[in-house]
Amino acid sequence: MVNYKRFVRSYRGIIISLVIIIGVIIGAIAGLVPVIQKIFALQSETASLSSDVSLLRTKLNYLDQLDEPTLKSYLVELAAAVPPDKSLSSLFGTIDGLSARTGVAVSEFTVLSAGSIASEAAKQQTQEEKKIGSNLLPFTVKVMGGYDQIRNFLDQSVGVRRFFRVRNFDISFADVTSISVRMGMDAFYLPFPTNLGSVQEQLQPLTEEEQNLITKVANLPLLGQTVSVTSGMQPSVSSKADPFSP
């Protein structure tokens, strides 16, 4: 014990200095650890952003090579067949055009869904719609005419540039010159996507098969009005030639 006290008295200054130094080192380490962690996080974020910018540059270069007027014309052709909304005006116009082409008389036309004019934001797809990949607008139409006229109406109703499908129909007739048909039908429509894909998602060019399909759709008769595809789709455009330049 005596030796210990003598040792402390002899080296008190050194011991105090060492304690102070150790305390300073511990404090510095405690303060540096969060800073180091933040630096690592910033470095990781910088690497991630650099990768995203590189991918966006690649996408931009690819998009610059595409013919925008051609893509817009494709969109207009397809939107006439499957519009981005219920487009009741094109629906009415197509039914009216079909009746004029085939000579039938339309005596009834009813949109079945009670909320069919409601906002798309409040509408949830049914299991059937999810399965086929499109929203459905159910309606009924009653037409009257001769046998050939009714047959032509049924044939042409699934071959016009406003896609329908016939769910069911009831026929009543007095003779072949006076036939009445009530049809339950569905009109297809599909809202435009509201979100862009992720940065990592690759842009897939149109295949030859897809281009041929677009040509087939464009060759179908358009009996209703053209559907606008520009409303609500104008992106914000940078004034710079290269939006990634400083």
UniProtKB/TrEMBL annotation:
InterPro entries: Transl_elong_EF1B/ribsomal_bS6. The chain crosses the membrane at residues 12-36. Keywords: Membrane, Transmembrane, Transmembrane helix. This is Pilus assembly protein PilO. The lineage of its organism: Bacteria, Candidatus Gottesmaniibacteriota.
